[in-house]
Amino acid sequence: MKFEILAITLLAASVGAVPLRTDEANDWQLISDVNGRMHIVDLTATDMEAEPLFNAYNDVVFRLFTRSNPTTPEAQIIRINNNEQLANSFFNVNHPTRFHVHGWNGGGQNTGASIRNAFLNRGDNFNVFTVDWGIGATTPNYILARNRVNDAGNIVAQFIDFLNAYGLSFNLIGLIGHSLGAQVAGAAGKRTSRGIVASIVGLDPAGPLFSLDDPANRLHHTDAQYVECHVTDGGRLGFQHPVGHANFYPNWGIQQPGCGPDLTGQCGHSLATTFMVESINPANIFGASRCRDLEDIRARQCVISGPSRRLGGEPVQDGPAIVGSVYFLATNAASPFAQGPR
């Protein structure tokens, strides 16, 4: 029998919780794309319809934004190893440089706009690159998009090495990725050849088809000098286990306030980006308490086991963090979501 990927857009209110069904033949799950559309995906499917090839070197687009060119029409496209384009752009080798990587079915000229604007509104000293791997990510076939993560990450790594050869310090580089984009960011961090990036923030890193037992093919704390994870729909659309240095579980990492029943998890999954955007504004502090471990989160009873720290922010690293440390915080049900320091 032939199993094909079904991509059916659904209204969240009309479906049940994920996974929908698991048996010996297939594993049907609802997975959200970057636009909030839910798709039914058979995670065991192997016989997939052919689609156009994804040539990451040619197809991934890097758009540069600065305070001198802050909007989409003014974006400057920079190609790998094109020193002339870089020299004629607004790129400043002395400025902190942030990358945003979108998730499944994302991409396009305006991808990452909220993150981009948050940095540019904060100050005039940021280079912000949006990573558009939409040709690889825009497909009804989630498995195909997932299998392109390492290819996309490899090109991001090559681009970072190019910037470093041009004179940019690895200590100035931070990556932020949502869902499947968080896994791309991790793949990039693994593959840089000239140094290790300063930070990676995984915004509810994608869970389906990523394994705790396969750190070589998922986000891992060794992918950057500091890795932070924000888990907002853990165990469904997001990867629940603490895989970074500091791992934050707003509202216990699932069923976010303001999302209602959120049967599919899409609302909570997308809120990870909203929280990060808000945190970049220094007026918004997401204070979090350190718990003992993931079991505290699952039991919804945090036993304080160390100093508090803030989620997100700029710079993202709020002091040293023990690998695998776990933090709980509550948020408001509407913006402003931050409840201040703890």
UniProtKB/TrEMBL annotation:
* Signal peptide (from-to): 1-17
GO MF annotations, alphabetized: lipase activity; serine hydrolase activity
GO BP terms in the entry = lipid catabolic process
An example GO CC term for this entry is:
extracellular space
Matching CDD domains: Pancreat_lipase_like
Listed Pfam families: Lipase
- Domain Lipase as annotated: residue spans: 46-337
Which Gene3D superfamilies does the UniProt record give? alpha/beta hydrolase
Has the keyword Transit peptide been applied to this entry? no
Q: Where in the cell is it found?
A: Secreted
Q: Which domain of life is it from?
A: Eukaryota
Q: Which UniProt keywords apply?
A: Secreted, Signal
Which protein family is named in the record? Belongs to the AB hydrolase superfamily. Lipase family.
What this protein is called in its record is: Lipase member H
**What organism is this sequence from?**
Pseudolycoriella hygida
Name of encoding gene: liph_3
